[in-house]
Amino acid sequence: RVFITYLFGAHATEVLVDTETGQVKTVRIVAVHDVGRAINPQLVEGQIEGGVVQGLGMALMEECIMKQGKMMNPGFTDYILPTFVDTPPIEAVFLEHHDPEGPFGAHGVGEPPLIGTPPAILGAIHDAIGIQMAQTPATPERVWRALQAARTPAEPAGV
Fold this sequence. Notes:
The protein is α+β, with helices and mostly antiparallel strands. The protein is 31% helix and 19% strand. It contains three helices and five strands. The chain has helices spanning 41-60, 112-129, 140-151, and strands at 8-17, 24-34, 66-67, 70-71, 90-95. It has a three-stranded mixed β-sheet with strand order 1-2-5. A hairpin with a 2-residue loop joins β3 (66-67) and β4 (70-71). It is elongated.
């Protein structure tokens, strides 16, 4: 085995997309994770919620803008992080399957919620507007441009 333990999880997300502005609002996120044994359930729930919020930022707003090797948005004025206002209700569900390799039957749950959130949000955007976003973050401008491109009929070849 390459790893001591393997982690499993699944996410579902509900979004609203304003097709006039490209603004995406997450309405609800459900994150289900196999945590081995939840030694401290409240802490496990907090880890899942924290990872989901980080994934929300990755999917919709956090972006390092680089120019000639220099970060152009190094402060919190320009590097946008999710706040309480951006965070929807998060349903953190954990499944307990004792892991004989983990301490007291547990396994880590710090990063997996982050990993599952962006694909769930991008999948929900696709379900809402029928367009697969090709780049993260799916900012309002990027979503709006994708909507405009889908509305514009393709030009005939040779024109």
